Amino acid sequence: MSHVRWAYGVLSVAMSVVLVCLSDQWATSDTIDAFTYWCGVATLVALVIAVGEVFHAGAATSAVNLALSAAARHEARTLSLEVIALVDEVSERTRQEDYTAALRAAQIARRFAGRLDSGLVLLSEVSALSTQLCKVEHVLHRTMNVHAGTTMTRSARSALNDTLMEIKVVAEKLARPEAGV
């Protein structure tokens, strides 16, 4: 039971006890007046309970929102860590010259980056991450289609690795708990 419910429960009981003690002074011996008095007491107690429930609902709503935002932050960190793992996969598959698997990993990483909630992370960071992943995907597409059957040049592989490292830096920043995620 929450503190708000305890508070209005105690207040209701205390108010009822006080009003029972004062009933001899405020309620006359007339049956209608006594009935009206007790109806007023019941209404007053119900009002205290209703107001207490409104405060309790506000406290419960904020607790639920806090839990949901913590879950969303956890999901964003998890997605960032998945992006890092997929970037490592792209790097490894590129090294092995398996460009199809590298492209697939880059596309999955881009989908994960797209699922990052812009309310939890800076839009510029998500945009930078998506832009870099798009570049990687474009390079891999070009390698597979334009230069089919050949391997990437050393300079192209070096540029791709530089881009992958930039992606990892952004994703690692997003994965840190104190980074606003």
What is the N-to-C succession of helices and strands?
Answer: HHHHHH
Beta fraction of the residues? Answer: under 5%
Gyration radius, to the nearest Å?
32 Å
| Helical fraction | over 70%
- Give the low-pLDDT segments: none
What can you see in these coordinates?
The model has no long low-confidence stretch (mean pLDDT 81). Helix 1 packs antiparallel against helix 3 (31-95), helix 3 (31-95) runs antiparallel to helix 4 and helix 3 (31-95) runs antiparallel to helix 6. The radius of gyration is 32 Å and the shape is rod-shaped. It has 181 residues and is mainly α. It has helices at 3-21, 23-26, 31-95, 99-114, 123-145, 154-175.
Topology of this structure?
Blueprint: H1 3-21, H2 23-26, H3 31-95, H4 99-114, H5 123-145, H6 154-175
Features:
single chain; 181 residues; mainly alpha; 6 helices
